[in-house]
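for the writeup, i need someone to sanity check this before i put it in the appendix. the sequnce is what the collaborator sent (i think, or maybe the updated version? ugh). structure was predicted straight from it, no edits. if anything looks off just tell me and ill rerun, i have time this weekend
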Amino acid sequence: SPTTMAHDEAMATLRALKLDRKRFLELLEKLIGISEKLQDNPPHFVPQENLAIQHVMAAVDPFRVENGGRLHVEHVVYSEGRGNLILKIPGTTEKVVSMVGSHLD
């Protein structure tokens, strides 16, 4: 069936994924480099998540729809400097799988 084929294709794609250690460590180094600005202890430290978001957005840039990838990227800000990053990958059905991820502070 088409659904089974789509599932099998998706699983094969996931199994083929490999961690790019160099890219991962480069991003981790950048995030550690700004960790002081991500501390959350108002009024002394107010996290600036947008700084981390800039690095994550640069890391996922090659995979964005605008660059030929499948990833939809949206940076939203409800409080100055404390943005959120929404990443969406279209599926093969009308079903929705949601994951709410970690803090950047």
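Residues 5 and 11 are 10 Å apart (CA to CA). The chain has a mean pLDDT of 88.
thx in advance!!
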